[in-house]
Write a structure and sequence with these properties.
With about 210 residues, this protein is an alpha/beta fold. The chain is about 40% helix and about 15% strand. The strands form three sheets. A five-stranded parallel β-sheet has the order 3-1-4-5-8, sandwiched between helices.
Length: about 210
């Protein structure tokens, strides 16, 4: 029986219906680059580390988690929205508290948790791609160290890739290229590229 990789995340990862093409999430493409695993994408837009749990979505994952599975946790985008207090978390208190619940849930089922820092937005100023959600990235790294949990620093990896390909190419990765306004959500091209980056890191984890 195949082991599964479960995804707990937000709109940058979720699977989109055909009517929303070309908008896409990286979770849609991961299966193509991680042979031998079943991808179970529970990511959904607008959720923070807090609301994903409060809505029972982590409990739903727990019902299926088995020994040998992986739980990938990418949260932070929606945690940072202070203007929406129902989803906001303070990075160094609430956010860390909720992240540890995902880790505990995975380990209680003999599955392996993997923390993933938030993916980069298209934030380009004076010839440089800027890091958003810095406190959330740092807080997640603290949790990974405190809990001895695997960490994939997607923020750094995605910024490095955008820098490598340059602004014009990077623009085609985001829905900005389609609607002129969205610097956060991915086109199919962008989501696929993020999946490639994540898969390269995961292959090193799952084969060790």
């Amino acid at each position: 029986m195949k082991s599964s990789i479960f995804l707990a995340s937000d709109s940058t990862c979720q699977t989109y219906p055909k009517e929303q093409v070309p908008q896409a999430g990286w979770g849609q493409f991961l299966a193509a680059y991680i042979p031998g695993y079943t991808i179970r994408n529970h990511a959904i837009g607008g959720r923070s580390s807090r609301t994903f749990i409060e809505e029972g979505r982590l409990k739903d994952i727990e019902k299926e988690l088995q020994k040998g599975d992986y739980l990938l946790i990418q949260m932070g985008h929606n945690d940072a929205t202070k203007e929406k207090p129902e989803r906001y978390t303070d990075p160094y208190t609430d956010y860390k508290h909720y992240l540890k619940q995902y880790i505990e849930a995975a380990r209680s089922h003999d599955a392996t948790p993997v923390l993933i820092t938030p993916v980069a937005r298209l934030h380009y100023v004076s010839g440089e791609f800027l890091i958003d959600f810095n406190d959330y990235c740092n807080a997640m790294k603290e949790v990974a160290e405190e809990e001895e949990c695997l960490l994939l620093d997607l923020m750094s990896l995605s910024i490095a890739h955008l820098t490598e390909v340059g602004f014009n190419q990077a623009t085609t990765y985001y829905m900005l290229d389609v609607n002129g306004t969205d610097h956060t959500h991915f086109t199919e091209k962008g989501a696929n590229q993020i999946a490639v980056i994540i898969a390269e890191q995961l292959q090193m984890i799952v084969t060790n």
